[in-house]
Amino acid sequence: MENSFTEKNGVSRRGFLSSTVAAAGMSTLAVDLTSSTATAATNIASADIKNLPRVKQELVAPPFFPKHDQIAKGGPKIVEIRMVIDEKIMVLDDEGAEIWALTYNGSVPGPMVVVHQDDYVELTLVNPATNAMEHNIDFHASTGALGGGGLTHVSPGEETVLRFKATKAGVFVYHCAPGGAMIPYHVTHGMNGALMVLPRDGLKDKAGKQIKYDRAYYIGEQDYYLAKDEEDEYITYETAGEDYADSMDVMATLTPSHIVFNGAMGALTGDNSLKAKVGETVLIVHSQANRDTRPHMIGGHGDHVWSTGSFSDDPQTGLETWFIAGGAAGAATYTFLQPGVYAYVNHNLIEAVLKGATAHFVVEGEWNNDLMKQVKKPSPIK
After folding, report:
1. How many of the other CB atoms lie within 10 Å of CB of 43?
2. 340: left (phi > 0), else alpha (psi -120 to 50), else beta?
3. pLDDT tens digits for 310-334?
4. Active site annotation includes 135
5. Does the annotation count 347 as an active-site position?
6. 20 to 30 Å CA-CA from 121: which of 40, 76, 141, 347?
7. Are 156 and 127 in contact (CB under 8 A)?
8. Out of 2.60.40.420, 3.30.360.10, 3.60.40.10, 3.90.180.10, which CATH number does the structure's domain 215-364 have?
């Protein structure tokens, strides 16, 4: 079944896959899994894979991580996950600006997935009949078929199952990529997330010493492009996809209306601040599926930073600010040494303060005057 919205905008899944293959100069054999060679290879792989143990990973809403082992137990596994696509209205700020968000499992960003290198990820992707649009998923951690995007197009009322081997250790973006202009449209409407592939023996520093974390948080940075009317008010829409033309006009300016952490302004501040204690090491995974960003912990540092996301490379150490390229995820650890409120920001401070890219860590513990002390309180100049 082809979705009417997709047909109206000229982005059918089968048409997109065919045009992509042709544009890349690929023969049909490259993607034809019914060919004799491909079938033989698939059968060999299937014989090995069917004997692997299976585990179901219960996904949770960000900023939290699913339960996982930092060091793998036993050999490779098939990690089963399920994502249900949810098209929903989300309010983005205190002024009531709203968007028809396109989401995996109802959150922006989508849920964090955690596996170990050489595990298999087996995703069931569900697009309920109540949705209006066609969707798919492109895993930057995977190899082949447009990151899985070529094999996972689902119209409303359909589901599909994709399995891929996690061959690279690191943190990676995943996102919807239906084709053409629908790719940036879906990504900038919230349809992206991250997957962490841990080395089987866990994270290590440059000297090969184990890096363990007490808590882990996932921060997904999201840029939105909301249109305004003649009276400078954000426009509201009755259905998902109705804002397509207006969104494309705003997106063409490359100027976001909002740049936020975890879906909306203030989503990780106040009562939703991230918690830690003095002496705890926190792992932070930060993704941005569309724009470059520069995370910074005000009052702290990146003790170990994998700014490119690759755990196969040595981490950088002691950074004040690090860079994460658009379309990528990065990771950092920090051991908190002082109590208080730490602002974690995109250190383009215009984007942090005016657009919304700010989170707070609230840390409990005893103050250390050796690290910082107010020697004299503000008082009149003598």
Report:
1. 9
2. left
3. 999 999 999 999 999 999 999 999 9
4. yes
5. yes
6. 40
7. yes
8. 2.60.40.420
Cα four-point dihedral sign 221, 225, 230, 236: negative
Catalytic position from the list 308, 347, 358, 360: 347
Spell out the residues 6+ positions from residue 110 whose beta carbon is closer than 8 angstroms to its own: 62, 83, 103, 104, 174, 191, 192, 193, 194, 220
Spot the catalytic one: 7, 32, 201, 320: 320
- For 132-173, the pLDDT digits (tens) are 999 999 999 999 999 999 999 999 999 999 999 999 999 999
Environment class of 209 (CB within 10 Å of its CB; exposed 0-12, middle 13-18, buried 19+): exposed
Q: Given 135, 286, 301, 304, which residue is catalytic? A: 135
Enter the tokens of residue 48: 């090995």
Supply the DSSP symbol for 293.
B
Is the entire prediction scored with pTM above 0.85?
Answer: yes
